[in-house]
Design a protein that fits this description.
The chain is α/β, with parallel strands linked by helices. 35% of the residues lie in helices and 21% in strands. The strands form two sheets. A seven-stranded mixed sheet has the order 5-4-3-6-7-9-8, with helices on both faces. The radius of gyration is 20 Å and the shape is elongated. It starts with a helix and ends with a strand.
Length: 272
């Protein structure tokens, strides 16, 4: 027995709307495409495909991120593998990539690399650069390593299990990071989807600024003269993060906004 794809799509959308999904139509299409794989659009679904679709609908109805269900997220120029072991790449983080790729960097360090989406996108844009991705989670690095092969830069990147700088040696022209910046008392107000992402990638379980303190304090030990530190921030954190950069001796400190004119990135230059 087969099932009409149009009927399956409508049923999926209705089920997700009833469950309160904020993007029911888009999610239904993504889930249908997943089970159809390489089949032509509107090809009838088999019993097995219909069962898989129903299973995936139930997962999304529980507000599991659609990227976790389909196993990937589009970011910059590639589809990155994602899972519950890594932070789901956000479109606004492309602003960090766009700013960082304009720096003449031969060596790049990405602290808290997660899926590797920032570092790997930069290496794709900088064909002569090499990079190091650091993360406290080995499972996250396993995902990042697979993504490096997808992007085609595996021969130009190294991975280290590291609590920020602890396992890192050498100096870098560019250090980037999108660290956990959500304060503990803000977590309860977040979208339900974030419950499926690693908590350690979202919050420091404190004031949301702990990672910036640690990153800034030791940046001078890992940046080359004239090297740049660039971090993504929460929209209310610019003043505090700029002060950390200033206190640690960085120069040319600047705040960069996203397309909605919200503070998103702070950068500073190491001039010993």
């Amino acid at each position: 027995m087969t099932h009409d794809a149009g009927d399956a799509l409508r049923q999926a959308r209705a089920a997700l709307e009833a469950a309160g999904s904020p993007s029911a139509a888009r999610d239904a299409s993504a889930l249908l495409n997943k089970v159809q794989a390489d089949a032509s659009p509107w090809t009838p679904l088999s019993e097995a495909q219909m069962a898989q679709l129903q299973h995936d609908i139930q997962r999304r109805a529980r507000r599991e991120p659609i990227s976790h269900i389909i196993g990937r997220r589009a970011f910059w120029m590639h589809d990155f593998e994602v899972s519950s072991d890594v932070l789901d790449p956000r479109p606004e983080t492309e602003t960090l990539v766009d700013l960082a790729r304009q720096i003449d960097a031969g060596t790049i360090l990405d602290l808290g690399t997660g899926s590797g989406c920032i570092l790997l996108s930069l290496l794709h844009e900088m064909p002569r650069a090499v990079g190091v991705g650091a993360d406290v989670s080995q499972r996250a690095l396993d995902v990042a390593r697979r993504n490096a092969h997808v992007v085609g830069v595996a021969d130009r990147v190294q991975w280290h299990v590291s609590d920020w700088y602890d396992a890192i040696t050498g100096r870098f022209d560019l250090i980037v990071s999108n660290p956990p910046y959500i304060a503990r008392d803000e977590m309860s107000a977040l979208a339900p989807e974030l419950a499926f992402e690693p908590r350690i990638a979202l919050t420091d379980d404190a004031d949301g600024l702990s990672a910036y303190r640690r990153i800034a304090q030791r940046a001078g030990d890992y940046l080359t003269p004239g090297g740049t530190l660039m971090v993504e921030i929460g929209p209310t954190q610019a003043t505090a993060v700029m002060k950390f950069f200033e206190d640690c001796g960085l120069s040319d400190i600047a705040v960069h906004s996203d397309l909605d004119q919200r503070d998103l990135v702070v950068s500073g230059v190491f001039l010993p």
